[in-house]
Design goal:
The complex is a heterodimer. By secondary structure, chain A is α/β, with parallel strands linked by helices. Chain A has helices at about 10-25, 40-50, 90-95, 95-100, 145-160; strands at about 5-10, 30-35, 70, 75-80, 105-110, 120-130, 135-140, 165. The relative contact order of chain B is 0.19. The chains are: A alpha/beta, B alpha/beta.
């Protein structure tokens, strides 16, 4: 069951939404972040990192070149960017499964490269509406912490700065 | 004076490189096997492909480096290798080879930081006195360091999101220009016509020395979205020029300010993006107006090569510092944490 579509009015709101999600995470979770270049994936990821309590002096930079950046936090964050992968077999090489189902939060940009749209996890889809606005859709797949979803839903419902267009 | 003949190896990203350097000064050979053609098909570096290709080429490459240098295996007195940062699978190829080689020849081994290599590369061409400001700009880095000597670095500023080289690659990709994006955009920008397009200079007004390039990338994307029709060649060149000018402005202004605030009058620009002609021109102009001395290594030493590692490698080995055979590759390794000797 989805949480509906949210329209974020600015980069700052996208960051805030990521932060909220980061704060709500209590258990190891796989987050799959979809969206084109410039859709705001890294901004959202930065929010999640801050919400998890990554040291504010540590910049959350793009993992495109390193493939994965690891941050220590309340739950450790493994930030992946699969943009450069050409074959899902290569994931085995980088030990992806160990992180994705490990003891921390695995946040994956370009999960299309997994070639499994049904990968269990919290799918977040960001889409550019115009220069400022982004549509953000949360779709939990598989066994996701019900409490997390409930809290995320009530946050979205109660936050007046984010307009909600239920699907 | 200790004379030392070193074999230097580099495999941190998409280039495998082998070099022979005497005394950390004299480059006898410096050979790079690029994988650009291989990765161009995918629009970027493919890590697994990178590791496999490193493995295929490293042996013949070392042979070639020795032959070109006119040096026999048994003349070598040490091995220096990139220990990190980079893709761990790729780094491991160089590190494992270097360990085996050093062990077989019973010569010392030293693992060196990739960025330390880039920053010190200039010393192979001209002596730059310490301290200086190092501007490390590449596909994975946009960092400013105060450099007080080999092994003595203090971070002054860095990118908070994308590296400069990465922004070039992504903008080229948005315009369908191919990989790697830096040289392609540089060439298009060479026409020096931005058609009046102005992109933002993120963080240029902020009183720190950090960078952000994600915003420029998004500005280009928004510009492309607003066009009524697909951009023609002229428009693409104008966008490339405006984008490059914005990136160059931010890098140069922040660098000069950082140098001034640290009381440094020498700037060394290093890394792949140091090949960018717009960046070189702008820094050269600033050198004249600000009275700073600006140094650029030649293009071969800006690229991911391995001769550059020999400056620090020779210094460490000569000081009696070496790595054990338990040396491991590290993908994430802040430069400030390298040994201080």
């Amino acid at each position: 069951m989805g949480l509906g579509a949210i329209v974020s009015g600015s980069e700052a709101q996208t960051l805030e939404l990521g932060k909220k999600l980061g704060r709500l995470l209590k258990q190891p979770t796989l987050i799959l972040l979809q969206g084109d270049l410039g859709a705001g994936k890294t901004v959202f990821a930065r929010g999640v990192a801050r919400g998890l309590g990554v040291d504010p002096d540590t910049p959350i930079t793009s993992p495109t070149f390193t493939l994965m950046n690891h941050y220590r936090a309340r739950l450790d964050l493994y930030h992946f960017d699969l943009y450069r992968l050409s074959d899902p077999d290569e994931l085995i090489e980088i030990g992806f499964d160990d992180y994705a189902h490990g003891s921390g939060i695995a946040l994956v940009e370009w999960p299309e490269k997994l070639e499994n749209p049904e990968t269990p996890g919290l799918w977040v889809h960001l889409q550019r509406l115009d220069d400022e606005r982004r549509e953000i859709v949360f779709s939990p797949k598989g066994d996701i912490d019900e409490e997390l979803l409930e809290r995320l839903r009530s946050y979205v419902d109660s936050n007046s700065s984010i307009s909600i267009e239920r699907v | 004076m200790i004379f030392m003949l070193l074999l230097a190896l580099e495999s941190s990203c998409d280039e495998t490189a082998a070099a022979v350097v005497r005394d950390g000064q004299q480059v006898l050979s410096n050979i790079i096997a690029s994988q650009v053609d291989l990765h161009a098909v995918y629009g970027g570096v493919v890590p697994e492909l990178a590791s496999r290709r490193h493995l295929e080429v490293i042996n013949p490459l070392v042979e070639e480096a020795l032959t070109t240098a006119g040096v026999k295996q048994e003349d070598l007195e040490g091995v220096v290798v990139t220990r990190g940062p980079g893709l761990v699978g790729a780094l491991l190829v160089g590190v494992s080879f270097a360990k085996a080689y050093a062990y077989a020849l019973k010569i010392p081994l030293i693992g060196v930081h990739h960025i330390e290599g880039h920053i010190q590369a200039i010393q192979l061409e001209e002596r730059v006195e310490y301290p200086f400001l190092a501007v490390a700009v590449s596909g994975g880095h946009t960092h400013l360091f105060r450099v007080d000597g080999i092994g003595r670095y203090r971070l002054l500023g860095r990118t908070v999101d994308d590296a400069a080289g990465e922004a070039f690659d992504k903008v080229a990709k948005m315009m369908g220009l191919g990989y790697p994006g830096g040289p392609i955009i540089d060439k298009l920008a060479g026409a020096n016509d931005d058609g009046g397009i102005v992109f933002p200079r993120p963080m240029v007004k902020k009183h720190n020395f950090d960078f952000s390039f994600s915003g420029v990338k998004t500005a280009v994307l928004n510009y492309l979205h607003r066009l009524q029709e697909p951009p023609d060649e002229t428009t693409i060149s104008q966008i490339a020029c405006a984008f490059q000018t914005a990136v160059v402005d931010v890098i140069t202004q922040k660098s000069v300010r950082a140098a001034e605030s640290e009381g440094l009058n020498r700037i060394v620009v290093a890394g792949g993006v140091a090949c960018n002609s717009g960046l070189r021109t702008k820094f050269a102009e600033l050198a004249v107006s600000s009275g700073l001395e600006i140094f650029f290594p030649s293009p071969l030493l800006c690229a991911d090569n391995s001769a550059m590692l020999a400056v620090a490698g020779d210094y460490y080995l000569s000081s009696g510092l070496f790595s054990g055979l338990d040396l491991n590759a590290v993908s994430n390794w802040p430069l400030e944490q390298v040994r201080c000797a």
